Amino acid sequence: MDYNHSGTGKLGSIFQRLEFLGDAVLSYLAMQHLYKITPPLNPGGLSKLRAELVCNQFLACVSIQIGLVKYIRHTDMTMEAAIGRFTAWVQGYLASESSTSLPISTSATQIASARLFWNKGNTAPKTAGDVYESMLGAVFVDSQFDIHCVQSMFDITVISPWWWRFTSLFGGESMIYENPVAELRTLSYSLFKCVKIDYTYEYGLHGGTTATITYHNMVLAQCLGTGQRDAKKAAACTAVKYVNTHKDELKDLCDCAHQQKQESTETKVYAADSIICFDSDKDKPTRSNKESARLSIEYATTTDQQDPASDWGESVDQATHAPLESIAISPDTL
Questions:
Q1: How far is CA 288 from CA 192, 279, 295, in A?
Q2: Terminal Cα-to-Cα distance of the chain (whole angstroms)
Q3: Of 56, 219, 268, 299, which is most buried by a Cβ count within 10 Å?
Q4: Contact 175, 44 (CB under 8 A)
């Protein structure tokens, strides 16, 4: 069976239709599987785990493992090279993984992060993940829309060989794994007590998005992805590595605490210097002395009862003004 990329005309349109159908089927099968987890995950955990299970990076790995990428027909040599590089990287990682082991002291989060290795590598070509969804769509159509047939394919290609990698992501009713974006934010706060991390994006004319992460105007990472989500995740992974190896350098960049203290001081000085006293006999307010300040608040009352639903401006026009009360403000209360 050959899968024709969207750039190859009419057959490409069929590929897209099958991909659209397969995406919906995959989402249903993933949620069905996750819903049966015991103890049951809370809604937030279900949403996060589902996002990891159906992301393009992971689906590209599935396509590579079952040899599906070999059947993609296209005329884009750039895509051919990108698929080749990502395939070599995935196969190389899986080969080396069996010969290495994690340190005994590794945390649960680090274990989970290592198992989801596709989040920390090169961005997968979108077509490499799309082809798996199109295959599910084709099986669904050929089986006369029998969900059980697609369920069997999903179990054989995803659950059996890959599910063990996801079991370390959750404990009890909640997730214990943070995606790279959340991990970067948590790491920044724990090390520097600062989360001044900014993301900017550049969109290519021929597809692809470049995400740039800066910390106090210093570039931490810049990565290309098939879309904004993939680019952001890839850049966050790179940024986490950079932060862990340049802690001292980055710590000196943050001046948020100094700025906040300075702004707080300026606000207090401004407040103390701006106490005014409204005199009912004068048109303009006059400043009070520093010992005490008396603020006479004048506001309008209407001689006639106004309809609460009436126009606010009309009620003001009909109002008569009279001083009702005054409030004493001492500098000590500032």
A1: 43, 11, 9
A2: 77
A3: 56
A4: yes
User: Would you say the pTM of this structure is higher than 0.70?
Assistant: no
Main-chain phi, psi angles of 333, to 5 degrees: -85, -5
Cα separation, 287 vs 300, whole angstroms:
23
Q: Which of 283, 266, 264, 269 is nearest to 321 (CA)?
A: 283
Q: What are the mean pLDDT values of the chain's consecutive 10-residue runs (334 residues total)? A: 55 84 97 91 86 93 95 84 92 82 53 78 86 96 96 97 88 67 86 87 81 91 81 86 86 70 57 50 50 42 43 40 43 47
Cβ count within 10 A of residue 195: 13
What is the Cα–Cα distance from 34 to 43, expressed in whole angstroms? 11
Coil, strand or helix: which one is 277? strand
Q: Tokens 């809604």: give the residue.
A: 43
Q: Is the peptide bond before 103 cis (omega within 30 degrees of 0)?
A: no
- Give CA angle at 208 (86, 77), nearest 5°: 55
Q: Cα(23)–Cα(158) distance, rounded to whole angstroms? A: 14
DSSP 70: G
- Indicate the residue type of 42: N
Q: At residue 222, what are phi and psi to the nearest 5 degrees?
A: -145, 120
Q: Please state, as a whole number, how many other Cβ atoms lie within 10 Å of the Cβ of residue 74.
A: 17
7-12: which pairs have CB atoms within 8 A and are 24 or more residues apart? 7/74, 7/75, 7/76, 8/73, 8/74, 8/75, 11/73
Amino acid at 54: V
Number of Cβ atoms within 10 Å of the Cβ of 292: 13
